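Re: your question from the hallway

Yes, I did run it. Sequences:
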Amino acid sequence: MERKCEICARLGTESSVYCVHHLEAYNHLVEAYEVWRNALGIDWAGFLREICAQPETGIWAREVAESLIEAGRSG
Amino acid sequence: MRERTLVICEKPTAARRIAQALDESGTPEERQLKGAPYFLARRQGGVLVIVSALGHLFSIAQDGGTWSYPVYNYKWVPIHETDRKASRTRDFIEAIGALSRDVERYVSACDYDMEGSLIAYMILLHVCGGESVSTARRMRYSTLTPEDIVKAWETMPPSLDLPLIDAGRSRHEIDWLFGINLSRALTLSVKNSTGFYKTLSMGRVQGPTLGFIKEREIEIRAFVPTPYWVIKAEIRIGRKRYRLEYSRPRIDTAKEADEIVRACQGKKGTVSSIEERRREQPPWPPFSLGDLQREAYYKLRYSPRTTLRAAEELYLKALISYPRTSSQRLPPSIDLRGILRGLRKSRDYAELAEALLFQPSLRPRQGKRDDPTHPAVHPTGRMPSSLGRVEARVYDLICRRFMASMAGPSRWLDVDANVDVEGHRFHLKGSTIIERGWIAFYEPYVKKREGELPPLKEGQTLPISRIDAPRNVTKPPARFNPGSLLGLMERENIGTKATRTDVMETLVKRGYVRGGRLEVTDLGLSIVETLETYCPEILSVALTREMEEDLEAIQAGDALGEAVVRKAVDALRPILAEFKSVEGEIGLELDKAIRSEAVRASILGPCPGCGTGEIRLIESRRTGKRFAGCTNYRNGSCEKSYPLPQRGRIKATGRSCPACGAPVVNVVRRGRRPWTLCLDPDCPTKRRNEDGEKM
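Structure:
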């Protein structure tokens, strides 16, 4: 059965719970986390909150960050 | 009997100017036939019958068959047979047909470019008879001034410019073949798989252009900013403050930025060295059409279409040269002094033109791009009588750029003083204009970044008056605007100077891209992604560019149009075959995007009733009337609804009423000024007090 992206109605990719666009945004988040951690010494949750607060953050990246925060809360 | 010559012009305004220039008395006889104006001019003992087209009078249509794809059979037909709005062209064709019956000679006097040559050729071929093509001659001119027109008449070559015509015809045929087939393929994919009809279009240039916008949109949507710090410091010299630049424009960590600030706070800096450098900035070359459109967008905020229209009007008024040119060069054959003497009569340019005329020789800065048919856009030197606001501003831009291109370079003195503070290096920078050069001519449209420094000495100490390190984050790439997209299309060599503006507008009209800052819609994104998956060739820049090169080869006489069209059909066949085999999948994907875009377009704003739903425009299936209601109505949690005006287009503004919280919309109705409306009829802002005044 075809799996849908956790965030949107697109088809998910084989290796991830996201579609190709949200997966790309997720990868960017992971890359950017290293920069934020070095710069501010913040943890992953703090980083996600920072990203959600930035108007420069792209909509797909924000959606992934919000879903990860939500997952963190429920998990 | 006097010899009669039929002179075919592109537009009635151009026909009038050409008739006035060629008639020996300057007063040609103006007549009408079937509502189409024409002129009788007398020249060298003969009569010139000067007729006009209305742009293209012939276009391509499918030759037999049904509304399906693939389609490879086509024919050239009068344009009124394919476009209902072009009904007036029938009268022009009939008038030209009647007037061509007793003429001995034919002259093509349409604008000298591919389209102009093709317009006259099609009229000769289909209206005047095939023989006229072999005997017709071609006038070549770049301005509609009497001098240029007479010169073009006296020096016209003995035959038509057949390679240019062949290139123009092939371009139309290839664009038609790609456009009709791809558009039908997309439209039918949705219709055949869901029964839903929506016109979708795609073309040879549209595909790659949409691809560029989509790539940028993906970068923006997936963008994650990263932080950096900028050291901002100021020193005070006398009463004035000056900005210091830190030796590194960006600091990567908060800790390091903080350390720099703490080390320098309240300290004094020492001027360790002062470097002075003289710099020259040469003038910019005169405008090609693309340059003019970009400059008018950045400096005047005019869309490429607005600029093109204004430039065409200026050309028809004989105020500027032909604007559809790729050239950034002014050849020696142009009488620069004559043009400047003309501009000198204008109060706005008298001083500037005089300054240039004073120079012993005029050497305009030549750009890299050239165009075999026309020079760069330049004024003719004729005085404008009355110009609309847009035309006047575009004219001013062209005149100033023309004059600036002949002026000397601007000369600057840059000063860079190194200021050391507690082991940290700062720069105190200043720039002063020594000689304005071309900037004096182009003044309103150029930003001067000037900042003079006071006299400084090595060893001088300067107290730091302020220092901090604000946190910044990286920015996503900017969306394309009409100016930057036009530039990219030029660099990638897709489309022509005549078609690029149309391509951009079609993308907006079809709902693939939102105007202004060009933002791809979900429908546009889905179309590109679907095509990338199933038929990536449609989006291929390489394929489009190769065809452009083939078309240029026809124009240069190195290839035949027929062979190039055949090659294009051969490229199209496998694309369409592949598309057909996966039509169902494509249709379902596109249908999803169409529906999601329609839902997005119908959202008017957040619901003030429940706070979680959205107010949506809804059309009642039963009555056909429309109203606005909350999206939570379906799950029974909100019944908020509002009446709507039943006529006109309702557009969301993205705002909520500050008094009642209901969405505020724009209503656009033909023949009326658009108005803004709070959806709630009981909104306090709409109540009137006892005197009948709005509260």
